[in-house]
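Q: My labmate handed me this sequence with no annotations at all. I'd like to see what the chain might look like in three dimensions before we decide whether it's worth expressing. Could you predict it?
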Amino acid sequence: MKRVQKYPGVYFRESAKRKVNGQSDRCFYITYKDPSGKKIWEKVGWTSEGYTAAMASQLRAERVRAVRHGDELPRQKKKEPYFGELARKYIEWARTNKKSWRDDEQRYRTHLKPYLTDRKLSQISPFLLEKLKRKLADEGLADATVKHCLVLVRQMYNKALAWGLWKGENPVKGVKLPSLNNSRVRFLSHEEARLLLDELRNVSTQTYEISLLSLNTGMRAGEIFNLRWQDIDIENGLIHVADPKSGRSRKAYMTEMVKEMFAAKQRGNPDEHVFKDRNGNKIRKVSRAFHRTVDRLGFNDGITDPRQRVTFHTLRHTFASWLAILGTPIHTIKELLGHQTLGMTERYSHLIPENKIEAIAGLEQRFISDRKVVDIKATG
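A: Here is what I predict for the chain of 380 residues:
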């Protein structure tokens, strides 16, 4: 903020984008003290709107005169917060009031911050959130994750209302939340998995390694992005997994392919992330190289059902599906995936239809046998 030397108490700032007559547009402000001695800053307006430094100075003189004679000053408009400011306040509140605050913080930083942080609360409309919903879905996020993001926005606006930071309708009310019936049905065949990994190896070494790790351990993308070298125990073939969803930890077990992959990588400091973006920072989302490769292989051609589309999460689903087909006990699959409840894992029980057919056949055979016994007794 620069002071206009000719007029006391008058300041201006220049816009980096707006131009007037070939020069940067200026927004004028005035400052004065209210009857209690509190310093007041008041926005006057832009040059492009017809305002000048002289007009700002005249308005300031009227404000000073009003204070001197005890006249009532016009009410100052409350500054409308940006979504980023609201998010910071909300996460600070959540840290002491919500067990799942880490989930909220991660969803905001990863999915909401890039699109909403620099918008004022009044600028976020149902239409904008619908566009965000589609964008997150196009990035491969599960319906449940997209829904959690929108619910988080709704919770933030509710708090803004409660804290007096916002007056108006919650924009999420006008958005249709995704259905949670998003249990993945499709998993990769061994041939499809080989094709995908071979193609990824030629496109991006890191995307290949991340995909190989998920396919062989069932780890989520977020769990892989959180990995640090201190979590990798090649000697014992173990990976310490910090679950970003539940806050709990578990162990993942390395296959020989995974061991070889980690052994070939240059090991960093214990606290250093194993996989990093091009700037050396923690990865925030699955690389576009993965999605482009899936499209190039035609895995999603003609498929409209989101449960049948191949996304990065399909690799985790494939890991569990292959285990189920091999007859792995459902409780073991539950522990390997880090599910909190058995109900979350039971979706994979349908992948062993032969066992179900045998069970039904056995039930029928037992019924027939028991019926014959009853008939013999009845006729005897």
